Amino acid sequence: MYFFDEWEEETFNQRVGRMIVLAVGSKNRAKVYAVQEILIREPIKVVSLDVPSEVAKQPLSDEETLKGAINRAKACLDSKEISLGIGLEGGVCETDYGLMLCNWGALVNRKGNVWVASGAKIPVPHHVAEALRNGEELGDIMARLTDDRDIRVKMGAVGIFTNERITRKKMFAHIVELLYGQYLYHGAEEIKH
Q1: Each residue's pLDDT tens digit, 100-109
Q2: Among 167, 158, 144, CA closest to 102
Q3: CA 107 – CA 188 distance, rounded (Å)
Q4: Helical (H) or strand (E) element with 168
Q5: Domain with residues 6-192, CATH architecture
Q6: DSSP 8-state symbol, 51
Q7: Structural domain boundaries of the chain?
Q8: What are phi and psi of 98, to 5 degrees?
């Protein structure tokens, strides 16, 4: 990802070809910063768009969380300037070991290719799981527990539950690495042209 003014961008584009514009389907800082951090050395301009996930505010399964990520990524392509879209979605899912945090990402291009990846899962403490099962949203629960309304754009629940060893940004950065790696493996047509 490069940062430059218009003149520098025009000169850069003449040297390496058309600038790839990738949109992150969220304005959430943890998600946007994760993408920027991973793609900082790539010939990609990263922008963020406020797009709907078209799933519940609190996804309650792997399937729903993945669907939200795919929907966000695809919605990014509604803007003609965008070559690639990334959707990142956090949720929870029931397992034999209780309710767990889950997170998914999707990368899409204009040819209709969709790459998906999931991240780490950890158990949610019992009192948080009960609140989730009673219909509360994880971000609201964590804001109440930490007395920090912005926890979801900072370290997130995963940061609290891992004593800040893994933050929400790090968790999503791992997913972005998996997505971008698959994209490169499968040809990265937008970058080659």
Answers
A1: 999 999 999 9
A2: 158
A3: 12
A4: helix 168-185
A5: Alpha-Beta Complex (3.90)
A6: -
A7: 6-192
A8: 105, -175
